[in-house]
Amino acid sequence: MTSFRLVCPILASIALFTFVGRANADAGLPPPQLDINLAFKSLDQFPNYDFYLKYEHGFPGQKNGKPHLDQIEADKPTHLGGRRSGLSSVFLIAVPRGQAVVAPAKHEPDWLAKAPSGGLQSAALKADAAGAPLQEYSGYDITYRVQIAEDRLEVEWVESNLNEWWSNARLIGIAVGAACVLIPLTIIALVVLLIVRWTRRGTAASDAH
Predict the structure, then answer these.
(1) Cys staple from 153: which of 35, 58, 95, 120, with CB 3.0 to 4.6 Å?
(2) Helix 2-19 crosses helix 164-208 at what angle (to 10 degrees)?
């Protein structure tokens, strides 16, 4: 019984920290590593442009991260991984089809905020309608709608859904946590019941004498 009480909270903690994704802003904990899939609708409406994700990624506490450019493919999600705390704001950029665009080898002060030469750049991508940063939605599939109008690149958030793996893992974490609460309570209830029945039998035997 004592061993179970010691082991069970440990198992519950592992389940929560390892498997439980963030389902709502006030429920659960985001995974310590980034696991985000970003999908962009309506890119095929702009065949004259190539699209890229633009961001920096480094180690926690590092002032400047390494620049990244990830080309976006229409109808195919783009995955962001690595450490949550090392991710900068993420932008979508559009450049004329076939134009070469290369990320600098190291951090440059104006690179992240400045639109590429001859191209367009969106505002920083958000993870929900309230404007939460992407780091808070690790474990999610996030969908956006893209629009180019009057030489402006606009990215509209559409939806954020906990992906299938993290959704199933969350249920496992909840089940483990519930078992760790209910099983000890059940054992205690059974012990109390046995003690009460044993006490009643003893009392009845004494009264008979």
Answers:
(1) 120
(2) 160
Please state, in angstroms and rounded to a whole number, the distance separating the CA atoms of residues 168 and 12: 15
Domains within the chain, CATH numbers bracketed? 2-11+166-208 (no CATH), 36-162 (2.60.40)
Cβ pair 149, 7 in contact under 8 A: no
Q: Please name the residues in contact with 118: beta carbons below 8 A apart, sequence gap of 6 or more.
A: 95, 96, 99
**8 Å CB contact between 92 and 155:** yes
**Mean pLDDT along residues 189-193:** 74
Pair of tokens at residue 22: 């963030």
| Tokens linked to 161 | 């859904």
Mean pLDDT of 11-15: 51
Instruction: Look at residue 190 and tell me whether its pLDDT is greater than 70.
Output: yes
The pTM of the whole model exceeds 0.70: no
